[in-house]
Design brief:
The protein has 284 residues and is of the alpha/beta class. The protein is 36% helix and 21% strand. Strands 1, 2, 3, 4, 5, 6, 7 and 8 form an eight-stranded mixed β-sheet that branches. The longest helix is centred in the N-terminal third of the chain and has 20 residues. It starts with a helix and ends in a 15-residue tail after the last strand.
């Protein structure tokens, strides 16, 4: 699968997901959703009733995530937050409330239908400190050192160029800025029949990084204080749901998928700039 092909398939499927919500349906990440068959264990029960009550119903229905980064990320009043792959805007709207009127929450998405839905949800929520931008997470249309916190919810695994995504995230974060994303990761190498399935890539599975590879890529981009915290570990019955309909004999590969996929909260920090030293002894 080429990078361009993956990007076009992701764009098409997520555009269709937004249209399902605007026509009264719901939208889920996962192989079943990408086939139009419904939700799977990756996307269910991520937001509690208190959070759901703060946002329009359409924002919740459009959730395509695998976690709840706004609940796990440290967000402070006055900070600027960027959500990579913001979809219908749920995490942007929740973040905007956390950073308050002196802060700002931005969402970045490449899909026109999702951006239209997100802006409509912004209008319904009556939130002013929110902006949605069109663009790709591999080419973030923001200046260097401009963001305090980057969040994302089951989107980085969709990119075919994750190194570029992490480099861009590092670039736009301020020194001391935090990377705080939810993503699907694996423990151990993934089977080729899963990795090469484009619908499973759209479904947040085939593009997942192995956890140690994720750490290595973050460190290569310049990040420090890297942590990967599992939030859901998927067992064979979960795998049967998100691999269904993909011409894969789940029972035959059960030992190799049971407990190997997980949703995780990934944290990292962009180092503070080192101050110049004028003391003759500082280089000793």
């Amino acid at each position: 699968m080429s990078s361009a092909h993956i990007k076009e398939v992701v764009k098409e499927k997520y555009g269709q997901a937004a249209l399902r919500v605007t026509s009264g349906g719901s939208s889920c990440c996962g192989a079943t959703a990408s086939s139009g068959l419904g939700c799977d264990p990756i996307t269910t029960n991520l937001y509690d009733a208190a959070q759901a009550g703060q946002i329009p119903e359409e924002a919740l229905l459009a959730s395509l995530g695998c976690g709840n980064p706004t609940a796990l990320a440290q967000l402070n009043a006055g900070e600027v937050v960027l959500d990579l792959g913001s979809g219908g805007g749920i995490d942007v709207l929740l973040s905007a409330k956390r950073v308050g009127p002196t802060g700002k929450a931005c969402g970045l998405d490449m899909t026109d239908e999702m951006l239209a839905l997100a802006n409509e949800n912004k209008r319904k929520a009556g939130v002013e400190n929110v902006e949605f931008l069109k663009g790709e997470i591999e080419h973030i249309p923001l200046p260097d050192n401009s963001i305090d916190v980057i969040i994302s919810n089951c989107v980085i695994n969709l990119s075919a160029d994750k190194d570029r995504v992490l480099q861009e995230a590092f670039r736009v974060l301020k020194p001391g800025g935090r990377f705080a994303v939810s993503d699907v990761v694996t423990r151990g190498e993934m089977l080729p029949e899963i990795r090469k399935n484009v619908l499973l890539w759209v479904g947040c599975v085939a593009g997942a990084l192995e956890e140690n590879e994720y750490r290595t890529k973050l460190a290569s981009a310049g990040f420090e204080t890297i942590e990967i915290e599992p939030t859901r570990v998927y067992r064979i019955e979960d795998a049967r749901e998100f691999l269904s309909g993909q011409n894969i004999d789940v029972d035959a590969i059960a030992p190799q998928v049971d407990g190997k996929f997980m949703s995780a909260f990934v944290r990292a920090v962009k180092p503070q700039r080192k101050e110049a030293c004028c003391d003759p002894t500082c280089c000793e």
